[in-house]
Amino acid sequence: MESVRVDKWLWAVRLFKTRGLAAKACEGGRVKRAGQALKPAAKVKIDDVIELPFPTGPGTRIVKVVELVEKRVGAPRAAECHEELTSQETIDQRIESLSERKHRREGDQGRPTKRDRRNLGKPGGFFQ
């Protein structure tokens, strides 16, 4: 095997949860090789360097294709198929951003808890 579709490879090495999400990222021009946006059917080869967005949060991930696979593989095997080239600074910013988001619990929290529902009718309750 000399080349594989980029959407298939991204999904197979677990960089995206589904192949459809990988294809959407490609169609949106967010997956790039050498600065050029890739379409889902574009072929990747060994030693290609690919830029792609993180599934959640800010930042761009850079990976090098080490091995070609078409079918989804387990996490340990998937880690062997690509080499992470993302800068440590980007990874640190991403971790900081995710921890801020985790600790920020302001505004509407969705469905009220049992305690909140009990306090709805009381003076000075949930919505007052």
List the helices and strands and how they pair.
Layout lengths: L3 E2 H7 L6 H9 L4 E2 L2 E2 L5 E2 L4 E5 L6 E6 L9 H6 L1 E3 L3 H16 L10 H5 L10
Antiparallel strand pairs: 1-4, 2-3, 2-5, 5-6, 6-7
Helix pairs in contact: 1-2
Describe this structure in words.
The chain has a domain at 4-90: Structural Genomics Hypothetical 15.5 Kd Protein In mrcA-pckA Intergenic Region, Chain A, CATH 3.10.290.10. α1 crosses α2. It has 128 residues and is an alpha+beta fold. β2 and β3 form a beta hairpin. The chain has a five-stranded antiparallel β-sheet. It is built from five helices and seven strands. The chain has helices spanning 6-12, 19-27, 75-80, 88-103, 114-118, and strands spanning 4-5, 32-33, 36-37, 43-44, 49-53, 60-65, 82-84.
